[in-house]
Amino acid sequence: MARFSFLEWPVVRQLRTADSTARSSATVSEHTRELTSRNATADRVVQSVCPYCAVGCGQKVYVKDEKVIQIEGDPDSPISRGRLCPKGAASEQLVNAPGRQYEVLYRAPRAKDWQKLDLEQAVEMVADRFLEARRNKWQDADDKGRRLNRTMGIAALGGATLDNEENYLIKKLFTAAGAIQIENQARI
Amino acid sequence: MANADCIVIQGSNMAECHPVGFQWVAEAKARGARVIHVDPRFTRTSASADRHVPIRAGSDVVLLGALINHVLQNDLWFKEYVTSYTNAPFLISDDFKDTEDLDGLFSGYDPETGHYDRSSWAYKTDDDAGAEPEHGASASGRAEGESHGSGGPPVAKRPMRDDTLQDPRTVFQILKRHYSRYTPEMVQETCGVSVEDFEYLARSITENSGRDRTTCFAYAVGWTQHTLGAQFIRTASILQLLLGNMGRPGGGIMALRGHASIQGSTDIPTLFNILPGYLPMPTVDMETFQDYLDSIASKQQKGFWANADAYSVSLLKAWWGEASQPENNWAYDYIPRLTGPHGTYQTLEAMMRDEVEGYFILGQNPAVGSANGRMQRMGMSHLKWLVVRDLNMIESATWWKDGPEIASGEMRTEDIETEVFFFPAATHVEKSGTFTQTQRLLQWRHQAVTPPGDCQSELKFFHDLGQRIRAKLADSEDPRDRPLLDLTWDYPLHDDGDPSSEAVLAEINGRFLTGEDAGKPLSTFNQMKPDGSTSGGCWIYTGVYADGINHAADRMPGQEQDQIASKWGWAWPANRRILYNRASADPEGKPWSERKKLIWWDQDAGRWTGPDVPDFPVDRAPGTVPDPDAGGPAALAGDDPFIMQSDGKGWLFAPKGMVDGPLPAHYEAQESPVVNPLYPQQPSPTRELFPRGDNLTAPRYGQAGNEVYPYMFTTYRLTEQHTAGGMSRWLPYLAELQPEMFCEISAELAEERGLEPYGWATLVSPRAVIEAKVLVTDRVVSLDVAGRRIHQIGLPYHWGVGSDAVVTGDSANDLMGITLDPNVHIQESKVGMCDIRPGRRPRGEAATRLVSEYQQRAGLTVETGNERVTDPDLELRKEDPS
Amino acid sequence: MTSEPVQQRPNPTGDAHYDHPHSRRGFFTDTSICIGCKACEVACKEWNRNPADGDYEILGSSYDNTGALGADTWRHVAFIEQDRERIEEARESGRKLVDLGMPQVGPPQERGVADGAASSSATHTPDTPEFRWLMSSDVCKHCTNAGCLDVCPTGALFRTEYGTVVVQEDICNGCGTCVAGCPFGVIERREDGLVSTPAGREMPDTVKKPQNGVAQKCTLCYDRMKDDETPACAKTCPTTSIKYGEREDMLAAAHERVAQLHEQGMTEARLYGANPDDGVGGTGSIFLLLDEPEVYGLPPDPRVPTADLAHTFKRAGVAMAGMALATATAFMVGGRR
Amino acid sequence: MTASEFDSYRPPEPPRRRRGSGKGRRRAAGSGWLRRGAEGAREMPVVPDAEVEPYSSYYGRPVVKAPPWKKEVATYLFLGGVAGGSGLLAFGAQLTDRPVLRRNARLSALTTVGVGSLALVADLGRPERFLNMLRTIKPTSPMSLGSWVLAGFGTSSGIAAAGEVDRLLGERLPLGPIRAVLHGAEPAAGAMMGLLGSPLAGYTAVLLSDTAMPTWNAARGDLPFLFVSSAALAASGLAMITTPVEETGPAQALAVLGVAGDLVAEPVMVSRMDPVAAEPLHRGTPGQLLTWSKRLAIAGGVGTLLGGRNRWVAAASGAALLTSSALTRFGVFQAGINSAKDPRYTIEPQRRRLEARRAAGQTGDSITTAV
C-alpha cells in the first residue's frame, strides 16, 4: 500500500467532492489516473506487413527498449484499413512466443536428444555437408552425353513465408551450386 | 472486389481463411451485391453469404461447365467482348478431336506415357501448316503450366478466324459442343446441387454481367489441390470471358492464397522449374541459349513475352556479372538442367531411394503439412543431414524422437542416422524485406528490432552460407565450381552484419550496366536489352526500385488516395493494379459503361488514361492494326487486351499451355465414390501417379473392396490456425480457440456409424489411421449423387503429432495420398476416401496393424486405382481412325 | 441533453463528476455481419495481456472453445447452429416485438423510417434458409446502472470520464461481490492467471504477470481511450461487426441498421441494450441480435439488483428494528421470569 | 459395427443421440469453463409445468456467474448473525444488570465477530488488501456499509470484551492509565454493540439479495426477516450454552421469538418468490440443510420452552438452535450459488416477468427492442 494521505482517502474525497456515492472520480487511484496506452510509451513505430496469409494486411509494430510491445493493424493500409484477423492480431505473441527457439540445436546421428551448438560452428558444418553432398551426387551429363551440370544431393523446401529477397538469394545460390530440387508451399 | 455486383466464392472459405480480405466482400454485399458460396461445407463464409450451395468436393468442373453451357445455349454471353477480346472466332486444326468424340480423351493421347501430343490442338492457319514444332514437349511439358505462369506459350501467329462464329471448327462452336452435355440435371446427378440452386446461381451471374455489371469469382486451394486443379481455374476463366468479366472492375477471378509471400515465392521462385519472372529452368534438350529462348517465345509473336531474350540476359548478368559475356552465352551453361519434374514429391521419392543427402526446410512443416505425412517422415529418416529453420520447434524437426512412427515402432530413434540442425529464424519484424501479396502487390516491411539470440533471417543465413562455400572453394580449378565462384555475392552489410535487403531488391529491379546511365536503376522492363547492357534479377519486378526509390515502401495512406491506391506499395508489372485492364473499355476505347469505367482512350491526348496504370501500350490507339511483320509489344493490335498472351486474346480454348487438355473436362478424383457420369474415362488420364506400397489408393466405385473405404473426406483450414500450425499452434491465444483436431460429419453419418457428438472417432484411409473429435453438424450435408447417398467428412489439417507445441493432434494429411495435377504438380488433398468408426485409434504397433487389416480387406495393391485409362473400349477405338 | 425526459434518466458521464467529462463511449456489435473469426478475442487478450484459459480442449459448442466471458476472456464469440424451424421462430418472435409498438427512443424523424420498415416487412419476407450459423461477439455491457460498480465495497470499480465501468486492479481486494452483482455474468475473479504450456515454459518478460485474485472484465480499453485510440477489438474487427464510438452515434447506427434489416424482411433482427428504460438503464455496449437474447446466453430481462436496494433496505430496517424490539421484549419477558 | 481387437480403446458407448442441438448438453465437470467458478456437476432440473414456455439457452451455460465465495462466507453469515445477536443480548444484560450474561455475550460477540472477520478475509482474492474495505462509504454497496458496521461492531465489542477480560483476570493486566479509559468507554462500547447488533445480523441478507443470483434476489423483501430471526435464535442458543439458566431468561425468550420468526419468515418468503427461482431452496443439499434447520429450530424452541430451566436441557436446546442457524445460512448460501449455475433459474423468471409486464400493457421497459 502506498503512503496514506488523509485528504486523498476516498471517504474524505467523496465527502468533499460531488461524487458523494464514491462511484466515480472520488475513488480513482493514483495508478488509474496515470494510466496511458502502452502504444503511447513506444520509442518508435515501424510499418510492417502481416506474416500469415497472402492478403498482405498492414501492421504497425510498436517498439520500446528494443522489444516489440504491440503489433496492430495499420489504418493507412488500403488493403486492410487497420484490421487484422485472429492470426494477425496474435502477431505480437508470434514474436514473443513462449515456445519460440533462440538457440541452435544439433541432433547427432542415433542421438536421443538435442545438444546445443554454436551458431558459427553450425553454419560451418552445414557448409561442409553442403559441399560434400553436392560432390557426392553430382551429374555432369545425362546418358546421351548432354550437359546437366547439377547435383541431386541437396534439396530445399520452403519459401512461401519468406521475403522475396530471401527467396532470391536461395534460388541464386542453389542454382549456382547446381542444386535443382527446390520447392515451396505454392505447390503444397 | 468491392465493386462487384455478384461474387461467387467457390473452392475457398474466404471468411475463414482471409477474414480481412473478406471485408471487401462484406462491403460489396452492403452495397447490394449478391454473394454466393459454393462449397462442400457450410462454413463461416456460407454464414455470411446470400446463399450456400453445397457441392460434392471435386465436381466443380461439372457445375462451371454447366454454367458455360447455360450461357451459350441461352445466348447470354457478352457478344462484343467475346468476339473482340477472346479467341472464340479462331479456327482449330482439323485434326483436333474432342472428348465428345473420344469418350473422355482429347486427340493425341498416348496411353503408354500418359501424355498428350498437343499438335492437333493448334490453331488452323492460312497455309494450314499446322502449329510450330514444339520444344521439349515430353520432357519439360510436365511443368509447362507453371513455367509459362503469367505469359502464354507461343502459338502460331496468324490463325484463321470466322467472326460469325458459325464454322464448326471455331473455338466457339467447339466449346459449345464440348459442354453440351453439362446440363442442370447432370449437375444435380454429379455434384449433388439441386436444379433450383443451379438456376439461382446461373441467374445471379448472368444478370450481374454485361456492360453495366460485373461478377467476380474467388477461389483458393479448394480448386488448386485437385488432379484437375488448373482446369478448375480454366473453367472459371472461360465462363468469365464469355460473360465479359475479365480485366474489368469488380470482375475477374481472385486467387486467395495462404502464405504471406506465396505469390512472391513463385514470382521469384523457390521452385524447381522456373527462374525469376517465370522464365523457365532450362531442360536437358535446350543445349544452346538459342534453344532456350526459342522455347519461351518467338520474336514474332505478340505481347511482352517476345522480349524474353532481354529478360534472360539481364538475369544472367545480374547473377554472374562480368562472367556473363556474349562469348559464353551470357553464362547460360552455369545453369543446371532439368530432365523431368523435380518437385517435392519426386524429391521425396528420391530421398526414399537414398539419392538425397541433405535437405533444407525453411519455414515449412512437411511432416504435418504435406500429403502422406508418414512417407514424408520416413523420407527424412533416409537423409544424411537435415536443416530446419523455423521460429518454433516444429514436428518436421522432431519426428526422430516423437513422431507417429516412433510411437508405432516403425522407426527407432537410436537407428536413425540423420543429423538434424535446428536454426532459430527471425520473425517478420526482425528483418526488412518485401512480401508479395495475392494481388501481386509488393509491400516493404521495415525492420523493427534485431533478432534475439541465435535467430537469423534467411537472408543472413544463406548469404553467410554462400560466403563460406565460396571461401572453401576459392582455390578450386574445377569448372563445376565456376558458377559459385563467379556469382555476384557481394552485398553490402548493415552494422549488425546482416546483408542489406534493399541492395538485393535493387539487384532484382535491375540497373543499366553501360552508357551514361550506368549504375542507375531501371524504371521498366522495356529498358532491358539482350546485349548485356542491363541487368535485372526478376524482370516483372523491374520498376519497384525505379529512380533508386524503394517503391515497395510507398505508404501514402489509403484515405488520401483513390480506390486504386497506386501509391501504397508497388504491384507488378509496372505498378498495374488490375491486369488486362484494356478490356475495361470497348474495342473503340470507350468504357463499357459509366458505372464500370477503369481506363479509356483519351482521343485528344492520344493515350490511355484512368485511375489505374493502363496494362497496355499507353499510346496504342484502339483501332491500331499492327504491321504484320512486327513482333512483341509492337504487334499488339488496338483490341488485343490480353497482352501477355501470344495472340493478345483471352483464351476460351487453350491451344497450348495445358498438358491435360485444351478445354476442361470433368474427371473423377483419384479416389472417388462414384462413376464418372460424363465419360467412360474415370480420373484424369494425365494425372501424375505415385504407385507405391506406402501410397496406396482406394478402389474406384464399382471395383471390389470399394466398400471398405465408404466415405469421402475433404481437408481445409480454420481461421484460428495457420496451415501446418508452425505459426499458430505454439501461440496460446490461437491454440485455445481451436485446441483439438476434429472431424465434421452430418447427423446422418453419425447415426450410421454410431458416432457421439464431441466424442472420439478413428479414421482409416489406405495410407494411415488418425483420430479426431467428432463435430456432428448440419453444416455438413450428405448429398444424393448418382442415385446414392454420399457422406462427406470434413477435416482441418492444422495439427501434428509432436511434443513441443501448445496443442498437438493427429494430422489429416497423413490420410492423404500423393497424386498430382500434371500442369502444376500440386497434390490432390481436397478429396480422398476413408472409413470412420467410434473411439480413439489404436496405439503403437496396433495402429499399423489396423491400417494393413483394412488394406487387406480391400485387397489393395500398388496398381489399385492407378490405371491411366479406364475405358475398356479405348484400345478398340485407337484402331478405328486408321 | 436538453430535452426534459432525458434529464431524469441517469447520465453516466455527467453524473460521474469529472472535471473534464467526455461524451459517453460505447460499442455497437452488429452480429448480422459477424464472421466469427475471433480476432476480437485475440486482439483483446493480446492488448490486455490476458492469459489463455481453459484446458485446450474442444468445449462442445460448435466452434466456440472459450465458452463464455470471464476473467480472462473479455470478448467472447458465440456460435449457434439453427435449423429452419428455429429461424422461423426467431423471425416470428421478432415480428411480435415490432408489433408491440416499442417505446419512443431517438428523434421522431428516425422513427418514421423504422415504422415504415416495420409495416412493409410483411410484403418483403425473404426466403427462409434451411440453416443458419449465428455468430456474435459478446462483451461487457458497460451498463448505465451497473450492478458490479454499485455493489463494489472498495471503490475498485468506478465510472470513468467516458461513462464506462472499469476495475482498478491495484485497488480490488477480490471480495467477489461484483461477480454476483452483474446481471449478465460478465465480471469474474481471476483465479489462475498463468499460461501453461506442455513444456511448462515461462512467459517472456514482455508478457506482464497477470493480476490474480482480483475481479477482471472488459475496460473498453480505458488505457487506449485515454490516448484517443480505438479499443483493440473494434480496431481489429475485419467486417466492422464491432463498432466503437460515442454512444449516441452507436445508438443511431443501431437504429438505422435494424430498420434496414426489417426493410429487407428480416424481422428477426432486434436491438439489445438500446432502451434507456430497461432494467439497467440501457447499456454502453449495444447489440443487434437475430434471435432471442437467451439463445446467445444473454438474460432476457436483466435488472440491476441495486434498483431494488432502497426497498430491500427498508424491509431490512424493519427486520432489524424487529430484532431489537424482540430483544427488548425478551428482556422484559425474561426479566419477569 | 464389427467387433475388433481395438474395441478396448473405445470408451463405453452412452445412449445414442441424434445431433446435439446444444440444449442440455454440457461437459463433464472439471474441465474447461465449468471449472472456472462452478463446482462440479449438479442435478438436471426437470422442466416443470407445461405453462412455462420451453426456454432456450446457450449450450446450457450459466447466464449469470456465481460469486467465488466458499464455505468461509457462509460461515461468516452464520457467525456475523451470532455476533450481532450476542451484541444485543450483551447490551440488554448491561442495561438489566446481568453481569454473567453480559460478560459471556460480550466475549461471544468478540469471538464470533473475530472469527467471522478472519473467514471473510480468508475468502478475499487479495487478503492483504482487506483494509480497502474501508476505502469508501458506498450507500449502494451493502458490502461497504456492512464493512463499516462490522468494523464498528468489532471495535466496540473489542473494547467491551477487553474490559470483561480485565475484570476476569482480576485487573492484573498491566494497563496502567489505560484501564480507566477502558472501563470508562465500556458502557458506550456496549451501547454501540447494541446499536449495531441487528444491522450486523441483518445486513448480510441485503448483501445476498442485492445480487443477480436468482434465488437470493427473488427473496429480497423477506430474507432479512429470516436472517435476523436466525441470528436471534442462534445468539440466544449460544448464551444458553455459555451462561447459567439464572441469567438466560431473556435469551430463552429471545430464542423462542427467534424460532417463531424463523418458522414464519421462511414460508412467507418462499411464497412470494418466483416458483422457479425458489426451487434451489428445496433441491439437493440446500433443501436438506433447510429442512434440518427447521427441525432443529423446532426442537430447540420446544426444548427451551419446556426444559429451559434445566441447565443441560437449555444447553442442548441452545446447541440445536445454533446448528439450526448455521444450517439456514449454509442452505440459503448454497441455494443462491446453485441458482446461478443453471441458466433456467435466470431465464425463466425473467421471461415470465417480461411476458407479464407485456400482457399488462407495459411494453416500454424491455432490453430487447425492435427499433
UniProtKB/TrEMBL annotation, chain A:
Cross-referenced InterPro entries: Mopterin_OxRdtase_4Fe-4S_dom (IPR006963)
Cofactor(s) the protein requires to work: [4Fe-4S] cluster
GO annotations of cellular component type: cell envelope
Molecular function terms from GO: 4 iron, 4 sulfur cluster binding; electron transfer activity; molybdenum ion binding; oxidoreductase activity
Keyword 4Fe-4S: yes
Primary location recorded for the protein, binned into one broad class: other
SUPFAM superfamilies on file: Formate dehydrogenase/DMSO reductase, domains 1-3
Keyword Oxidoreductase: yes
Entry-linked Pfam families: Molybdop_Fe4S4
GO BP term, example: anaerobic respiration
Residue stretches making up the 4Fe-4S Mo/W bis-MGD-type domain: 43-99
Superkingdom of this protein's organism: Bacteria
Cellular localization per UniProt: Cell envelope
Record keywords: 4Fe-4S, Iron, Iron-sulfur, Metal-binding, Oxidoreductase
Membership in a protein family: Belongs to the prokaryotic molybdopterin-containing oxidoreductase family.
Record protein name field: Dehydrogenase
Native species: Kocuria soli
TrEMBL record, chain C:
Cofactor(s) needed: [4Fe-4S] cluster
Residue span, 4Fe-4S ferredoxin-type domain: 25-54, 131-162, 163-192
Keyword Membrane attached: yes
Protein name: 4Fe-4S dicluster domain-containing protein
Region described as Disordered: 1-22, 99-128
Transmembrane segments: 316-334
Residues that coordinate or bind [4Fe-4S] cluster 3: C140, C143, C148, C182
Cross-referenced SUPFAM superfamilies: 4Fe-4S ferredoxins (SSF54862)
Residues that, per the record, bind [4Fe-4S] cluster 2: C44, C218, C221, C233
Principal subcellular localization: other
Native organism: Kocuria soli
InterPro entries: 4Fe4S_Fe-S-bd, 4Fe4S_Fe_S_CS, FDH_Electron_Transfer_Unit, Formate_DH_Fe-S_su
UniProt keyword annotation of Iron present: yes
UniProtKB/TrEMBL annotation, chain D:
InterPro entries assigned: Electron_transfer_protein, NrfD-like
GO cellular component assignments: plasma membrane
Pfam families: NrfD
Lipid bilayer topology: Multi-pass membrane protein
Transmembrane segments: 73-95
Origin: domain of life: Bacteria
Subcellular location per the Swiss-Prot or TrEMBL entry: Cell membrane
Keyword list, A-Z: Cell membrane, Membrane, Transmembrane, Transmembrane helix
Chain intervals with Basic residues compositional bias: 16-28
Location of region: Disordered: 1-40
Family (UniProt): Belongs to the NrfD family.
Name of the molecule in the record: Nitrite reductase
